[in-house]
Design a protein that fits this description.
Helix content: 10-25%
CATH class: Alpha Beta
CATH superfamily: RutC-like
Largest sheet: 6 strands, mixed
Structural class: alpha+beta
Strand order of the largest sheet: 1-2-3-6-4-5
Distance between the termini: 14 Å
Number of strands: 6
Order of helices and strands: EEEHEHEE
Number of helices: 2
């Protein structure tokens, strides 16, 4: 099985020893995405959780697009939030993008995230060629 490493300007540059995504066969593994604006590198630290969640999903969708896929190809999402009280707000944003045939999902309140941000998410997509 061939692997392809995904690196795109549609998501923040990898800041460490990882790739934005790895396409192994038809399965795309997307690294954890923080609410960082790819064009500027701005970290949305003071933004409300809803705005941070939208940026995280935008980054994930950018990586999927760069790999030749689309939102509907997502099969699994793991979401990490800083506070369990943010769950409803994140879920309301999530529902704006996923309306039926939802991907499998896990949401964990883990406390502190990098740079004082409120959310991080990773995803797996199955992209048919």
């Amino acid at each position: 099985m061939a692997k392809k490493y995904i690196n795109t300007n549609l998501a923040p540059k990898a800041n460490g020893c990882y790739s934005q995504g790895v396409l192994a066969g038809n399965t795309l593994y997307i690294s954890g995405q923080l609410p960082i604006v790819p064009e500027t590198g701005e970290k949305l630290v003071s933004a409300p959780i809803e705005e941070q969640a939208k940026q995280v999903l935008k980054n994930i969708f950018g990586i999927i697009k760069a790999a030749g896929g689309k939102i509907e190809d997502i099969v699994k999402v793991n979401i990490y939030i800083n506070d369990v009280n943010n769950w409803d707000a994140v879920n309301s944003v999530y529902e704006q993008y996923f309306t039926k045939d939802y991907p499998a999902r896990c949401v964990l309140a883990i406390g502190q995230l990098h740079y004082g941000l409120k959310i991080e998410a990773e995803a797996i997509a199955y992209i048919e060629n």
